[in-house]
Amino acid sequence: MADLEMIKRKVGKEASQFVESGMTIGLGFGSTAYWLIQALGERVKNGEIFYGVPTSNQTAEWAKEVGIHLTDFAHVTTLDVAIDGADEVDENFQLIKGGGGALLREKIVASAAKEFIVIVDYTKIVQKLGAFPLPIEIIPFGYERTQKQIADLGLHPALRKEEEVYLTDNGNYILDCDGGVIENPSELSHTLHNIPGVVESGLFIDMAAKVIVGKEDSIEILDVKK
Ligand SMILES: O=C(CO)[C@H](O)[C@H](O)COP(=O)(O)O
Questions:
Q1: Domains observed in the chain
Q2: How far is it, in rounded angstroms, from Cα 16 to Cα 25?
């Protein structure tokens, strides 16, 4: 297994210690969250029970495969904990998420949790956000105009495409914005929310309660002071 993958695996396992049997967990998406789910799966084999609200269809598949019971907001309104990866974490613990396209559900789930734990390898830690293109989920209707309004902010939005235009699990589009360093993430988040057609941005402001960082030979657990 490549080094970085090994680090992600250790971080996922480390995060699982914050989960107790019987808890309802917001389950993130991405290659680090995958390892959290595998670690929980090992405990399911020993008789522990977990309830998970998945942030993507893929997460739901992973969780089902290891025996985590899936639930949703029809049955719970508050989650004990949510654990998810991130694309960037800055010095104030603000995040860019959504590289995997699940940012809307990830934000709903994280905001519903008593504690939101972020799990990353050391390559995700930055002084200021912005080297990773900021994903923004937008409604397909009128997307050209929404894109123009975001371009006017200097964010250089590009419509995410695979073979065809990428569709989120919610049937929306993603704009990946390569606007360079984000000096004021909180202000930008507000500005984006005021644009009609923007569903959600990948800026997660003041949401992380804990950040678990995997390094070459250690793991650091950072508690965010509120
Ligand atoms: O926001 C996300 C998906 O929408 C992921 O959490 C983020 O992309 C990090 O993924 P990985 O753990 O694979 O590096």
A1: 3-127+206-218 (3.40.50.1360), 134-200 (3.30.70.260)
A2: 10
State whether the beta carbon of 99 lies less than 6 angstroms from ligand 1: yes
Rounded-to-integer distance, Cα 170 and Cα 192, Å = 19
User: Is 163 annotated as catalytic?
Assistant: no
ipTM of the complex as predicted: 0.98
CA–CA distance, 50 with 52 (Å, rounded to integer): 6
pLDDT at position 22 over 80: yes
Q: Which pLDDT does position 168 carry in this prediction? A: 98
Ligand 1: distance of its center to the CA of 156 in Å? 21
Q: Has 197 been labeled as part of a binding site?
A: no
Measured torsion, CA atoms of residues 178, 179, 182, 186, in degrees rounded to the nearest 10: -90
